[in-house]
Specification:
Length: 427
């Protein structure tokens, strides 16, 4: 129970680490039999100097998913840049299942990227597309190409063009920083920096805003900040606890934990009018609200039954029903994008693990192997869960596929990171 109270009142400051230019992602486990694919280094015409190795970024994205095994460029027998230059016999000899070729050219003040995806054995052109982009958006556009390839070959939307929010701090009285980076760890952007703790980043459904808790005035307050402009609004600074913000699926409301009535309960604020609606009213501690994808239900953590467990309540208010029954500690839930399951923190043999709970029954499936794993967040296509953990005595982030076969570790060169939140799918 002490962990639930700490989550409401104050973080463990030693968990934070210094802000770095990017997170380094290491694939620590992948799918056996990953599909072989060749992404040929892209050509450049009209004097184009893109400044981004497009093929390398696409290859890294696909490899990071654990579903594909890109061929090293040095092993390629040829380097075609257009469909007319492709001889698929070369790639069949090398055992490739799929081939990507492309070219970059100047257009206006930016670039045009032409690329083609082949099925090596059937000879079919699965994708033939052309995208234009400004120089500043070249890497993002490259991630979109990787997303398109991933979706064509797996039937599932890619998430390479999404972003991850996380908290980092230099520790020992240093600056606490809320940052956003690309899903591959590049392009880190500081959203807000403070000498005091920053907690609970939460994305708006359009991917343009972040809600978070800041202690910068020596008391908890909830802010909503526009990522592009940096403008932020103070939305909750009531006496007592102001915590655990969560955007509704339509982006118009924010669920939160407030104790302004004397006890921590779940409230929903209309962000337009700033009016509040109290959702729970119980003597226990109710916190960590999360919306169902259809916006009809809010799941939250409560100790009303004696220990932290998950409960569900109508977003309009009413009686709450217990959701979890296995293990003596279940908390910090988040819905899968399809609304069929929850990722949560559970305690097993004294260790805090990430688990996947199918709604409607069944025991939770343990997804992580750490001793103090926290803050699960689904990838927007539902394929992976990112969470905070420890490695070699430092706070890092980790990600696991929902089938448990693909694992990643995200860390900085020094310091620690925590509280990840995966952005929605927005193109």
């Amino acid at each position: 129970m002490h962990r639930l109270i700490l989550a409401l009142l104050m973080p463990l400051l030693a968990w934070f680490g210094p802000a770095q230019a990017q997170l380094t992602i290491e694939v620590t486990g992948g799918v056996e039999g990953a599909q072989p694919i060749a992404v040929v280094p892209f050509g450049a015409s009209d004097g184009a100097i893109p400044g981004v190795d497009i093929a390398a970024v696409i290859s890294a994205d696909l490899a990071r998913s654990g579903r594909f095994k890109p061929m090293p460029a040095g092993d390629m027998l040829a380097t075609p840049h257009s469909p007319a230059e492709v001889d698929l016999r070369d790639w069949r000899l090398l055992g490739m299942q799929h081939l990507v070729v492309g070219n970059v050219s100047l257009v206006g003040g930016g670039f045009q990227i032409d690329y083609t995806l082949f099925d090596v054995y059937s000879g079919d052109q699965l994708i033939g597309d052309s995208l234009t982009t400004a120089a500043a958006g070249l890497r993002y556009t490259t991630h979109r190409i990787a997303d398109a390839i991933y979706e064509k070959l797996t039937g599932q939307p890619g998430v390479f063009a999404t972003r991850i929010a996380y908290v980092s701090d230099s520790g020992k009285g240093g600056r606490v920083t809320l940052r956003v980076c690309d899903a591959d760890g590049h392009g880190a952007q500081t959203i807000v920096s403070s000498n005091e703790p920053i907690l609970s980043p939460a994305w708006s459904p359009d991917g343009q805003r972040l809600a978070y808790v800041s202690f910068e005035n020596r008391r908890a307050a909830i802010y909503v900040q526009d990522i592009s402009s940096g403008r932020r609004d103070l939305v909750a600074s009531f006496p007592g606890i102001n915590g655990s913000p969560a955007f509704s699926p339509d982006g118009r409301s924010l669920a939160m934990t407030l104790s302004k009535g004397g006890n921590p309960d779940i409230y929903v604020m209309d962000l337009g009018s700033r009016s509040l609606r109290q959702i729970t009213d119980h003597l226990g501690i109710d916190t960590e609200p999360a919306w169902s994808p259809d916006g009809n239900t809010i799941v939250f953590t409560s100790n009303r039954g004696g220990g932290p467990q998950l409960y569900g309540v109508s977003a309009a208010g009413g009686p709450a029903e217990r959701v979890t029954f296995e293990n003596d500690y279940n908390a910090a839930a988040t819905y899968s994008p399809d609304g069929r399951s929850l990722a949560l923190v559970t305690r097993v043999d004294g260790q805090f693990r990430i688990a996947l709970q199918t709604l409607g029954g069944g025991a939770p499936r343990i997804m992580s192997r750490g001793t103090l794993d926290e803050s699960p967040s689904f990838a927007p296509n539902g394929s992976m869960i990112i969470y905070a953990t420890h490695h070699n005595g430092r706070g890092v982030l980790a990600a696991t596929s929902v089938d448990g076969r693909v694992n990643q570790r995200l860390s900085q060169d020094s310091g620690e990171v925590r509280e990840p939140a995966w952005s929605p799918l927005v193109h």
